[in-house]
Prior knowledge:
470 residues, eight-stranded mixed sheet, 24% strand, globular
Amino acid sequence: xxxxxxxxxxxxxxxxxxxxxxxxxxxxxxxxxxxxxxxxxxxxxxxxxxxxxxxxxxxxxxxxxxxxxxxxxxxxxxxxxxxxxxxxxxxxxxxxxxxxxxxxxxxxxxxxxxxxxxxxxxxxxxxxxxxxxxxxxxxxxxxxxxxxxxxxxxxxxxxxxxxxxxxxxxxxxxxxxxxxxxxxxxxxxxxxxxxxxxxxxxxxxxxxxxxxxxxxxxxxxxxxxxxxxxxxxxxxxxxxxxxxxxxxxxxxxxxxxxxxxxxxxxxxxxxxxxxxxxxxxxxxxxxxxxxxxxxxxxxxxxxxxxxxxxxxxxxxxxxxxxxxxxxxxxxxxxxxxxxxxxxxxxxxxxxxxxxxxxxxxxxxxxxxxxxxxxxxxxxxxxxxxxxxxxxxxxxxxxxxxxxxxxxxxxxxxxxxxxxxxxxxxxxxxxxxxxxxxxxxxxxxxxxxxxxxxxxxxxxxxxxxxxxxxx
Length: 470
């Protein structure tokens, strides 16, 4: 690819003396620049890429793309650098998404579980999302749920010889910051909308607009029609709907206990009898989303049913540990709606006490903290409040925000040391009890200050009870 190609790709002017120079690679991080690379000077939320232009050129970058080329040599000025970066990445890596069946899944909750269900159903498939990206026996971590456009195209190119389908979580930030610019989606999925990320979006209306912006006029889509935003995303002739009524896919009958779900689905008039290791109403929604995608791509019913039966769990999503009639559940729930869903599910199948261990992330949306405390104390019998990822915020301030919403008549324990908090929860259990450990799920780290330390909720349970997850 030549620098001159950028004129047509991004509708911008390239200096004549640069046009015939060949691009050897792309980078938005100056630390990853090599000789002949094109550097994108992105202004981020915390840093300005212009500060690293000198560093990029010291590593022999061929040119820089910026929204302001004042006093910068070998610079290509563009109006929207993120959109331009996505388009260039797509072109440079030879449009890998066009050669794959890429399915984008967005929504507040359920994205990760739905991608894992689909990976089980579809042969030769990979996933990209919160737990990293994986295909075949390759598993790699990611910094963001949805990677930046350069990284995303490189991942798709890496997957391409080995997979036919890619199931990708698409975060609201990925839409807002054009990380998915240039990606060809064969199908898009909407799961649900509830409060999250208001530290960035400020209002639910702005957050909803970011989710809705993912869907373009003639996109094929699978939509949760029970959700208010989902109703607005319906487009006749382009939509498969799922929900508990008035939809293409809906339950005829279901029941669940700690061991899983038995479910009968009406799927466009056909009955799918499903046995799954997953539990809870919201996992019925996730199953319906996966079935909707399977129908769209014409997967045989028998194959879908067998895959759903074989599927064990998603790392850190209602991951179950059972010992002597006692249960511990590790889940990623970190919004009031997700906590409500998990605890209501566990309450219906717990014969004894329901204990919850949770905290809230620092330097993030503060308004959801009392709501998390309120919903947790309205359902659980014992509430243990601890640290999540406090980051640079005072842990006491975070806990006090949670306490504002907590029902003070309930038994409340404050233990800032997360490991001790989990152990206190486990020690409080008797036969028939359940402890829900919420907020971090699959994460194997804790961020305190600006440092990241190894920490895994599941390891604490395994070590203390000496059992593996089911």
